[in-house]
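DNA-binding protein
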Amino acid sequence: MELLDFATVGARLGIEPTSVRRRHYRATRRRERGIPAKRSDLPAPDAIVHGLPVWRASTIDRWINRLPGAIGDRYRQMNGEHDG
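Tokens:
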């Protein structure tokens, strides 16, 4: 099972690991406060390894495929996928 950290999630999205960390922080705060998730919120991590969140590749791929806008479109183009 492939586990992804901030750097590998960022590489899949074509963004910096600090941006992934920021998305994780914001999504975690929303979950803790009971605020409904946004579509762009990073999913909850599948595990914590050495104090850092990690996600299964399948978790991140499902989330990315649901992303609206430029990041989701860029990922789908990079992977030869098309909407509709």
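The chain has a mean pLDDT of 87.
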